[in-house]
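Per-residue structure
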Amino acid sequence: MAEIATIARPYAEALFRVALSGKLAAWSDLVSEMAHVAAHPDVQAFVHSPAVSTQQMTDTFLAALKSPVDAEAKNFVKALADNGRLTLLPEIAAQFHVLKNAHEGADDAEITSAFALSDSQVSELVAALEKKFGRKLLPSVAVDSGLIGGVRVVIGDEVLDTSVRAKLQQLHVALTA
């Protein structure tokens, strides 16, 4: 059986090409919303129901979206429904987001801190990280008190962990080795 990422890739690439010819930011928001709706358990159950036609599936899915949908987006959803691929939307959105970031020369930065960070602290941290990594970063910030102190930053497949928990783990490994 093919992996979900492999099946989703052509859809994400096609959608990205369409978005490049139009409004990339608007498509990005719409694809994110579609992924959020498609990931809902009730929608998943509805899509997998054999009693639901593809037209009902398409119409119901489009009605669940808050954003206005143009003809291209309707055709995209219909193509997904016709091919039984609506449940792939979260993976399609993830791959679309990667393509968008690559096009813009940016990367996502997942910042996890032991304590809540102010906007100025996040800005300073992002500026330092952009200088270190040499690219524009799009931060998302979370709080994890289990870190005890410091921050943990994940950018793509790179991890910068300056948390107290990580340092304690390193110390533990060094002492038990």
Summary: The first strand starts at residue 106 and ends at 113. Residues 34 and 65 are 7 Å apart (CA to CA). The two ends are 43 Å apart (CA to CA). The first helix runs from residue 4 to 21.
